Amino acid sequence: xxxxxxxxxxxxxTATNRPPEERVKDWLEFTNYLPEDQIISQAARCMNCxxxxxxxxxxxxxxxxxCPNHNTPPEWNDLVYRGLWQEAFKRLxxxxxxxxxxxxxxxxxxxxxxxxxxxxxxVTVKNIExxxxxxxxxxxWLQPQPPSRRTGKKVAIIGSGPSGLACADQxxxxxxxxxxxxxxxxxxxxxxxxxxxxxxxxxxxxxxVKLMTAEGVTFVTSTEVGKDYPANKLLEEFDAxxxxxxxxxxxxxxxxxxxxxxxxxxxxxxxxxxxxxxxSNHRDGQFISSKxxxxxxIGGGDTGTDCVGTALRHKCRSVTQFEIMPQLPLERGPxxxxxxxxRIFKIDYGQQEAAALQGTDPRQYCIVTKKFVGDEQGxxxxxxxxxxxWVKNTQGQFIPQEIAGSEKVWPAQLVLLAxxxxxxxxxxxxxxxxxxxxxxNVKAEYGSFSTNIKGVFAxxxxxRGQSLVIWAINEGRGAARECDRxxxxxxxxx
Length: 494
Known about the structure:
CATH superfamily of the largest domain: FAD/NAD(P)-binding domain
Structural class: alpha/beta
CATH topology of the largest domain: FAD/NAD(P)-binding domain
Number of helices: 18
Number of domains: 3
Mean pLDDT: 96
Strand content: 15-25%
Helix content: 25-40%
CATH class of the largest domain: Alpha Beta
Shape: globular
Radius of gyration: 23 Å
Largest sheet: 5 strands, parallel
């Protein structure tokens, strides 16, 4: 355990962000991470409690409590406190292939289930994780380690997001020849084009891809399997296939005026922005600009927040974010007890920046879009909304009910739809004749990850629906384990 009196002596400290007025002027990561001496003090707060929930990954009330990947913070927190950084790195990476990603973008489900949070503030697990892996890279502890032997088996992985990368990393360690197909021009999936550069600098994605390449993984970009590469060719040329293509079909908003110009899916807005940034620092103009526009973001999740932050960096005139749900409470409610993940009000980086520049939080709650109105050129100019209240119907379910007289017209020259995703795209799955579940995801049981086609596995968002990076890593590792078992008859993969 850490220091026996650590949680009494030290208060929780977390990484700080650069001032909003400063960081909106660039696309650099906005987080200032804690120095190592403070990280050691934070690690000392971990008590290695008798029944730790931080690595449980239990599903409680529809959400994971603790780390879905079963990372074990008490073990590496203790090692950090004792100054055993290399040992902490080895323990951390035993269960997590990519702490440099989760240490930056994970919502830290482990902290929500930390026992210290019962009476005080939880341990700063996420910041400690980040510091361990970055020190490992700086010290040169991460060097290419190709497998000592090859099995001769060939595996194709479709999609290079966190599930595909984790699966590839594990299967390569097992000695298989792994080829990762990615339809975009760069490897990384949502890590590359779904998360803006100021949250996850693409230097760190490329750093990991270079390491995996040196270890023997083959990456093929700008190749869409099912279109550029026939699906049946996969089954002929590879001994096994793992589908990690994500849930990339965005949810639409079918209201009057939806066909007007200036209304885009958030994913298209974010991808084009990052692609242009990396290609030319935005000099090529190949992105959807919000400069000097009134921007409406429809959707209150992380993607919506990323749209807010991106629009502000374009120097938009204003940005407003619509959320159909009510504002969350400031503290845990009676129906959200520990160790459930705390459903409480938070101000993320995009809202901080909007508040600093515009004077107020950009979020509007309990609001529904009724229609879009355009100008003479067919471009959106207005968004018409109405407020709602959530009431119980005859079945006891909460439903939104419009509030008479709450109608409002908002000026908008750019509307971004950030309402999540409905499932994977159809083309490849139809070609392979794969069975689907009732949400259109690939049907494959968690734990086995096998589809109705022999030798074809599925993992990540393509199997479970839109989710978190840590869940994707967990699924990629699990699918690799079962794929290895299928190829070799047994497996040593965790």
